Amino acid sequence: MQTKAFSKLFPLFNSTKLETLEWLLSVAVKHEYPAGRAVLMEDAWGNAVYFIISGWVKVRRLSGESTTTLAILSHGDFFGEMAILDESPRSTDVVALSKVYLFSISAQHFIQALFKDSQLHHRMLQLMVRRLRQTNIRFQERHQPPAVKLANTLVCLAQSYGQSTQQGTEIFNISYQDLANVTDISIEDTIKIMEKLDSKGWIKTHCQDQTICLINTQQLTYLASRVRLGTRG
C-alpha cells in the first residue's frame, strides 16, 4: 500500500510525517483472516497494533464459557493500541465477522514511531480521548429507550464505516446478538426494533450480500437523538 493511500484510509496517520509513514509501512505485516477466525486471542494483547484495511471484526469480552461483544470495528480503524502500554492480563479477543485484511505493527516499532513523530503521538492521544468520550456518552445514555439506543448504534456504524449506494448507506449484516450486546439492550428488543425499522422501510437487510442498508438515515438519526419509538404498532 502506498503512503498516500495509507494515510487517507487511517485518520490516525493523516498528519504523520512522510518518513514515519514509509518506515511504518516497511515494518508492517499484512494478514488475511476468513470470517469466524480469531484475529487476536486474549493472550496476544500487547504484542502489536492492528490496522483494518477492509472487512469487519468484533471485540469480545470473555467470561468463562460466555462472551459479550463490546465493539464492532471496520476499515480505517485500529485496535491493540492501549494494550502495548498496559501489561496486565486481557480477557478480550477479536474475531473476524467477514473476510478481513489488516496490517500489524509490532509494539516496539509503534512505540518508536510515537517517540519519533510528535504529530503522530498527538493524533493518537486525540483519538484515544475521542473513544473515551464515546464510552462516556454510551454510559450517560444507558437509560434511553432501546429503540433510541439501537438507532444510535446503526447511525454511528454507518457514519464510521458505511458505504454509500443508490439505495442508502450499507453496513455489514451484524447479528442481532452482537447488535444487542454493543447497544446494551436485550436480544428480544433488538429483534422487535429491527423488524419495525424494516417494516417502516428505514432499513433493509440483504442476507445474500451480508449487508444492512440504512435507507432512511435522516429518520434514523432523528430517532437516535429525539424520538421514542415503540416496539408495537
Structural notes for this entry:
By secondary structure, the chain is an alpha+beta fold. The protein has 2 domains: 117 residues, Jelly Rolls; 86 residues, Winged helix-like DNA-binding domain superfamily/Winged helix DNA-binding domain (Arc Repressor Mutant, subunit A, Orthogonal Bundle), CATH 1.10.10. The protein is 41% helix and 25% strand. It has a 4-stranded antiparallel beta sheet. The chain has a 4-stranded antiparallel beta sheet with strand order 2-7-4-5. A 4-stranded antiparallel beta sheet has the order 9-10-12-11. A hairpin with a 2-residue loop joins strand 4 and strand 5. Helix 5 packs across helix 8. The longest helix has 23 residues.
Give a brief rundown of this model:
This protein is α+β, with helices and mostly antiparallel strands and 233 residues long. The protein folds into 2 domains: 3-119, Sandwich (Jelly Rolls), CATH 2.60.120; 140-225, Arc Repressor Mutant, subunit A (Orthogonal Bundle). The protein is 41% helix and 25% strand.
